[in-house]
């Protein structure tokens, strides 16, 4: 079944949800059956090539880029249809997508800020999953404080020459392109003088070094630019005005797909509850109270997302995205701690004592280890609170050196 048929013939949201469920049930079979539950944060190394094939299978059937305008290969699905798809996808146990950064971040950014030439060049490759993207934001001295970026780009004839270093670059070792925030105006400071560049990864001037994380896997990397090149016209938005484009991307990052993320959270909580019932931890009134509070927190997150989703735009000035990040990041980090508490003393040792991609970690251990970073990546708690205080509440700016 082609998604276009499902979108056009569904008379209501219930019918569309049934269409999505039917397609997923029919297609998560055969070669794709073993992919259920694979991938995701801390597990991006799992069955990557097979998940890439699955993403391309989705694309061939029209299930990618649902909310994009039809002129750019999308289906112009309604907000409720997009929400339904992400939630049904998560409930089915379908594998984590490998094309998230292109489809959910760069694609909407190009549609909002890019030139027609850029849209024609890059959107088809995102839609059909023939080109994968990574995000060149953070640096050793510019993590959540993105305005401290020092990676430079200088115009040299008909190309930009890029020098500097990015860090925590997810899937850079598997991507063909990177959207990079670089300082294009010498002597500029903070938000001024930044530009948003589209840079090919396969070139001599780029070196990618994996970073081993707490889970023993390496899904993110350091990326070094040593006279790396990209064409002069591959700037999204105006030269020197990249800050607003970068903030637009972060706003899209915290959009509709977060509801699918929350379904995944609910599945993790359900598994922890089942473990507590099996090992007797659920009889402890303190544990029972914490499990109940976790369930309540999940409902609060969903209610907030549904209430604010339609009001979030590319400016990111309303603070909704920052509130959402604070809600889910702190809740999920707490869930990781609760998972270890429910698992008990056995959670302190890996099953085989090994460390690395093949370490025999339980689901609870992997959840705990990776979720320690939830309140840091994508904008730390401190930065999100500053955004809310300064841009929404109008409080005095925090003193900066």
From TrEMBL:
Family: Belongs to the acyl-CoA dehydrogenase family.
Record's GO cellular component terms: plasma membrane
Cofactor: FAD
Entry superkingdom: Bacteria
Entry-linked PANTHER family: ACYL-COA DEHYDROGENASE (PTHR43292), ACYL-COA DEHYDROGENASE FADE29 (PTHR43292:SF3)
Signal sequence extent: none
Domain Acyl-CoA dehydrogenase/oxidase C-terminal: 240-393
Domain Acyl-CoA dehydrogenase/oxidase N-terminal: 12-126
Keyword 4Fe-4S: no
Gene3D superfamilies in the record: Acyl-CoA dehydrogenase/oxidase, N-terminal domain, Butyryl-CoA Dehydrogenase, subunit A, domain 2, Butyryl-CoA Dehydrogenase, subunit A, domain 3
InterPro entries recorded: Acyl-CoA_Oxase/DH_mid-dom, Acyl-CoA_Oxase/DH_mid-dom_sf, AcylCo_DH-like_C, AcylCo_DH/oxidase_C, AcylCoA_DH/ox_N, AcylCoA_DH/ox_N_sf, AcylCoA_DH/oxidase_NM_dom_sf, Mycobact_Acyl-CoA_DH
Name the UniProt record assigns to this protein: Acyl-CoA dehydrogenase
SUPFAM superfamilies documented for this protein: Acyl-CoA dehydrogenase C-terminal domain-like, Acyl-CoA dehydrogenase NM domain-like
GO molecular function ontology, one term from the record: flavin adenine dinucleotide binding
UniProtKB keywords: FAD, Flavoprotein, Oxidoreductase
Residue stretches making up the Acyl-CoA oxidase/dehydrogenase middle domain: 134-227
């Amino acid at each position: 079944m082609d998604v276009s048929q499902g979108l056009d013939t569904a008379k209501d949201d219930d019918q569309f949800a049934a269409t999505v469920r039917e397609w997923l049930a029919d297609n998560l079979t055969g070669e794709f059956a073993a992919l259920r539950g694979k991938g995701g944060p801390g597990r991006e190394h799992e069955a990557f090539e097979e998940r890439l094939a699955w993403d391309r299978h989705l694309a061939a059937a029209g299930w990618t880029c649902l909310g994009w305008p039809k002129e750019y290969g999308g289906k112009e699905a309604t907000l409720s249809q997009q929400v339904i798809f992400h939630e049904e996808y998560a409930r089915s146990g379908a594998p984590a997508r490998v094309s998230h950064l292109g489809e959910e971040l760069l694609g909407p950014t190009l549609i909002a800020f890019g030139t027609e030439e850029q849209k024609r060049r890059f959107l088809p490759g995102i839609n059909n999953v023939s080109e994968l993207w990574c995000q060149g934001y953070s640096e050793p001295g510019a993590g959540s404080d993105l305005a401290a970026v020092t990676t430079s780009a200088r115009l040299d004839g008909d190309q930009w020459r890029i020098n500097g270093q990015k860090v925590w670059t997810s899937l850079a070792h598997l991507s063909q392109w990177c959207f990079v925030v670089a300082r294009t105006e010498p002597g500029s400071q903070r938000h001024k003088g930044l530009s948003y560049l589209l840079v090919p990864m396969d070139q001599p001037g780029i070196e990618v070094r994996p970073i081993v994380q707490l889970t023993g896997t390496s899904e993110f990397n350091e990326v070094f630019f040593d006279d790396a090149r990209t064409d002069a016209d591959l700037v999204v938005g105006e030269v020197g005005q990249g800050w607003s484009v970068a903030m637009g991307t972060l706003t899209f990052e915290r959009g509709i797909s977060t509801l699918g993320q929350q379904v995944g959270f609910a599945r993790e909580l359900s598994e922890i509850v089942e473990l507590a019932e099996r090992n007797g931890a659920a009889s402890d009134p303190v544990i029972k109270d914490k499990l109940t509070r976790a369930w309540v927190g999940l409902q609060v997150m969903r209610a907030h997302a549904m209430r604010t989703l339609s009001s979030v735009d590319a400016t990111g000035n309303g603070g909704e995205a920052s509130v959402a990040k604070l809600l889910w990041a702190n809740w999920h980090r707490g869930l990781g701690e609760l998972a270890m508490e429910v698992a008990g003393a056995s959670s302190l040792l890996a099953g085989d004592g090994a460390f690395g991609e093949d370490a025999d970690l339980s689901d609870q251990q992997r959840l705990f280890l990776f979720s320690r970073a939830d309140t840091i990546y994508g904008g730390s708690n401190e930065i999100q609170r500053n955004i809310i205080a300064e841009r929404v509440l109008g409080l005095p700016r925090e003193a900066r050196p």
